[in-house]
């Protein structure tokens, strides 16, 4: 919303107005000052701001003696800082779309445009310094000379006066003024005022929105969030509530493997498979709650975890860990594509090559259009349908199917299957025992691999970044516990059905390769429900694959944008360039994973193989990365060497074990064995963890996390700061100035809100809560429950098995409530807002479009 402004001093001291203009981005205009120019600024600025000199360049006016500011003599003399002035040809021309945060403003001189960085925002706004002032938003230029301001006429809004005051009595700075204007325009808009806006005004707002689809269009029209800002695109303005974040975590963590590999291990090892799959991949999400709390504490404005590594340890560490980060994303994405395309081909006959490309490209479209928030909203809808389909399978198998229909019948069929083909390594060859040697080996591999894919995957950091700081921990604990039910219950249903129905004529026989490709679930779904079952599984898989792929696309896009493009190619990137590159990187990465899926498919690497392999090459980065973000003593060189040495040790251990156990034959089949993968996984995570931890104890750093907290930190416009002082002590280089003008999240926050949300005491408390609760859950899930059952060699009777199944079903219900109904409840206000807007659009005159008065989560 473009405005023009006039200035006046506080009411008691003077009421005379002075012109000041903020222009449309696309429609700059000048509001001339009187021609009498007296270089008096600054005169009596407080010490903290002294001396107030403009930067040496690139401003053309700095070429002249650096006494820059114009004033005019109408007592008491007030000089507006040139950052706020609009005097064409003499001073930079403020170019600001006031519907965007002040950080989007640019100062323009002729054809040269520069962002307003922290240095500029920290300068005193007026001379003499004033601690309060009134800014009037007016519909026409008020004076000097009385010339109408083009394109800003006919505004007749009632909220035309902003009183800006610093509570500490210090002088107002440029940032204070711009932030106050932005907050005022963003918040003080009642519905009545909104409705009173003319169509022309809305047209101006509309020009800021790009093309959007579906949910994104609804979000943009009826809420205050616009995916046209890079902050919203990559971080959903860091305002998302815990239920929706939890749904996003569930959805990003529900891979094709979660449905297919979990069922495959149920098929191979019996009931221990689903348990180890679920618990061995839940604990990492729970433990990640600690990392998330530390991230909010130590780098609250970072976009990516690699930014944190780079800020703390510099370029070498940044590049080394970028390898691990991108390798993680590529492996996870490839598994998604492999699992998705294998099942699509199996159930529909579609070409695997086509499926490899169609899945990521389809997802890329909605990611580009909607960004992070739409990804989360799609995650939510996907999770909802996902639970509905899981319940369909559960009730078919355990209640209605004439082939199985009850836990008791399932138990009988599993017992028969074990008699016909006992499971090697299981107590009495039974399917209904936790005593499963291979199940346990898989459990260990699973735990290690999933540490890597949570702790090194930007997708999970991204959800921590997108969440409200105060509720991040809650979101991760909720998300982790809710997710457990998906593989556990689905595999206990479909994976075991594939065993139970082995003698059923409708059940197709499964080869070892089919099992490795994750096909037992599809075979069971078809045998149980025919075409309907195949379709339901296809939909289930489609939802899982698309939302997890969308998480990967946006995660890699963020890494490539912020950690490659912005860090190494164009540190001065503008908001527009960042958005453009983010979009391009989504499309680029969609192609990359299509190709990766294709390559793995042709060399015969299946989803199951990759799933057990991921810890071999990724495991060594887990401890170093966790230590970097959470521990002040972590040693840089020790962590880099630990990651590299662990990587080498993992590969060597894996290959040597393969060769030793298979008479020197190393190929895809021999290297995919349980023990071979176990050796590689253990060596990788073990060596990486031991070296990183030991060196950090021997040569501890004493790091204060200041440089990571400074990543993208906005100018604290309403508090005292040393930035102006820094600027005067050491003139910032052009590059530094431009870097500081990252499109910053905090520009979209109220300063007080930021302070409250990032209160270190509260965040430390959240960290402690995350630490003890996740450790307790870890002990329960992977030690207290499974190990006594393993060592006691318990084989369940019918009642025991039924209880096991019922607990799974109850857990699934609770999960569904947590990530399907709870997000609706917590977003009831936003939903009400959207409903009202839609109803008004359809049934009433005028526009139902709405801008929320304050920034709240969707
Ligand atoms: N996300 C997993 N490991 O299913």
TrEMBL record:
A single Gene Ontology CC annotation of this entry is: plasma membrane
Q: Name one GO molecular function term.
A: spermidine transmembrane transporter activity
Q: Which InterPro entries match?
A: DUF6699 (IPR046522), DUR (IPR031155), Na/Glc_symporter_sf (IPR038377), Na/solute_symporter (IPR001734)
Q: Origin, by domain of life?
A: Eukaryota
**In its keyword annotation, does this UniProt entry include Transport?**
yes
Write out the annotated subcellular location.
Answer: Membrane
- The question of whether Membrane is a record keyword is answered with yes
Pfam families in alphabetical order: DUF6699, SSF
Give the residue ranges for region: Disordered: 713-742
Q: How does it sit in the membrane?
A: Multi-pass membrane protein
Which segments cross the bilayer?
244-269, 275-295, 316-338, 350-369, 381-401, 439-455, 476-501, 536-560, 581-603, 609-631, 638-657, 677-699, 775-796, 802-825
Q: Where is the composition biased (Basic and acidic residues)?
A: 722-740
Q: Print the keywords alphabetically.
A: Membrane, Transmembrane, Transmembrane helix, Transport
Domain DUF6699: where? 94-209
UniProt record similarity statement:
Belongs to the sodium:solute symporter (SSF) (TC 2.A.21) family.
Q: What is this protein called?
A: Urea transporter
């Amino acid at each position: 919303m473009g405005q023009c402004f006039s200035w006046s001093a506080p009411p008691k001291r003077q009421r005379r107005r002075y012109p000041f203009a903020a222009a449309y981005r696309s429609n700059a205009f000048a509001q001339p000052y009187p021609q009498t120019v007296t270089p008096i600024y600054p005169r009596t600025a407080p010490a903290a701001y002294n001396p107030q000199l403009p930067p040496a360049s690139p401003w053309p006016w700095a070429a002249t003696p650096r006494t820059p500011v114009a004033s005019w003599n109408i007592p008491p003399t007030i000089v507006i800082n040139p950052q706020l002035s609009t005097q064409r040809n003499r001073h930079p021309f403020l170019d600001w779309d006031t519907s965007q945060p002040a950080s989007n403003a640019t100062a323009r001189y002729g054809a040269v445009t520069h962002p307003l960085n922290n240095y500029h925002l920290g300068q005193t706004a007026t001379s003499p310094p004033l601690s309060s002032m009134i800014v009037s938003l007016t519909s026409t230029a008020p004076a000097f000379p009385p010339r109408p301001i083009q394109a800003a006429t006919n505004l007749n809004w009632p909220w035309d006066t902003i009183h800006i005051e610093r509570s500490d009595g210090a002088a107002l700075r440029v940032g204070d003024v711009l932030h106050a204007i932005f907050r005022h325009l963003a918040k003080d808009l009642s519905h009545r005022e909104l409705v009173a806006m003319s169509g022309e005004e809305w047209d101006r707002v509309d020009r800021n929105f790009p093309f959007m689809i579906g949910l994104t269009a609804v979000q943009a029209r009826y809420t205050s969030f616009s995916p046209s800002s890079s902050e919203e695109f990559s971080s959903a303005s860091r305002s998302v509530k815990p239920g929706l974040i939890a749904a996003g975590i569930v959805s990003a963590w529900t891979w094709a493997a979660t449905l297919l590999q979990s069922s495959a291990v149920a098929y191979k090892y019996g009931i221990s498979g689903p348990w180890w799959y679920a618990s061995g991949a839940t604990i990492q999400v729970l433990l990640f709650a600690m990392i998330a709390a530390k991230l909010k504490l130590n780098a609250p404005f970072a976009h990516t975890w690699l930014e944190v590594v780079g800020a703390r340890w510099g370029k070498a560490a940044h590049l080394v860990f970028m390898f691990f980060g991108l390798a993680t994303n590529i492996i996870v994405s490839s598994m998604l594509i492999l699992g998705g395309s294998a099942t699509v081909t199996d159930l529909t006959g579609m070409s695997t090559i086509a499926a490899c490309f169609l899945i990521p490209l389809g997802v890329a479209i909605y990611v580009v259009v909607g960004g992070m928030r739409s990804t989360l909203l799609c995650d939510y809808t996907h999770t909802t349908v996902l639970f509905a389909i899981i319940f369909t399978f559960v009730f078919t198998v355990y209640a209605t199917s004439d082939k199985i229909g009850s836990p008791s019948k399932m138990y009988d069929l599993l017992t028969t299957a074990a008699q016909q083909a006992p499971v090697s390594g299981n107590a009495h060859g039974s399917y209904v025992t936790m005593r499963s040697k291979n199940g346990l080996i898989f459990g260990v591999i699973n735990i290690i691999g999933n540490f890597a894919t949570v702790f090194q995957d930007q997708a999970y950091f991204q959800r921590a970044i997108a969440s409200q700081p105060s509720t991040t921990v809650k979101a991760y604990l909720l998300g982790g516990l809710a997710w457990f039910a998906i593989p556990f219950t689905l595999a206990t249903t479909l994976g075991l059905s594939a065993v139970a129905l082995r003698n059923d004529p409708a059940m197709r026989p499964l080869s070892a390769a089919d099992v490795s490709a994750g096909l037992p679930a599809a075979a069971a779904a078809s045998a149980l429900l025919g075409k309907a079952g195949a379709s339901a599984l296809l939909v289930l898989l489609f939802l899982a694959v698309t939302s997890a792929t969308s998480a990967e696309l946006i995660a890699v896009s963020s890494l490539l944008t912020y950690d490659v493009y912005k860090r190494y190619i164009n540190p001065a990137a503008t908001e527009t360039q960042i958005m453009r590159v983010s979009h391009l990187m989504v499309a680029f990465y969609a192609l990359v994973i299509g190709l990766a899926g294709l390559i793995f498919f042709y060399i015969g690497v299946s989803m199951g193989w990759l799933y057990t392999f991921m810890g071999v090459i990724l495991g060594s980065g887990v401890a170093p990365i966790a230590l970097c973000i959470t521990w002040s003593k972590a040693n840089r060189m020790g962590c880099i060497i630990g990651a590299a040495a662990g990587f080498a040790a993992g590969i060597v251990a894996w290959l040597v074990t393969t060769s030793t156990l298979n008479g020197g034959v190393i190929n895809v089949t021999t290297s995919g064995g349980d023990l071979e993968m176990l050796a590689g996984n253990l060596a990788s995570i073990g060596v990486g963890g031991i070296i990183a931890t030991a060196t950090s104890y021997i040569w501890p750093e004493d790091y204060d996390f200041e440089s990571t907290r400074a990543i993208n930190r906005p100018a604290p416009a309403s508090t005292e700061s040393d930035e102006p002082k820094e600027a005067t002590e050491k003139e910032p280089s052009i590059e530094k100035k431009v870097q500081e003008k990252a499109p910053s999240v905090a520009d979209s926050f109220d300063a007080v809100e930021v302070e409250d949300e990032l209160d270190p005491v509260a965040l430390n408390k959240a960290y402690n809560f995350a630490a003890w609760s996740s450790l307790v859950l870890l002990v329960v899930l992977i030690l207290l429950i499974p190990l006594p059952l393993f060592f006691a060699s318990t084989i369940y009777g019918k009642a025991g098995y039924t209880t096991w199944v019922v607990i799974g079903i109850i857990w699934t219900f609770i999960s569904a409530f947590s990530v399907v109904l709870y997000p609706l409840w917590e977003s009831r206000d936003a939903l009400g807002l959207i409903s009202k807007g839609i109803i008004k659009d359809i049934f009433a005159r005028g526009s139902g479009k709405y801008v929320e008065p304050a920034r709240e989560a969707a």
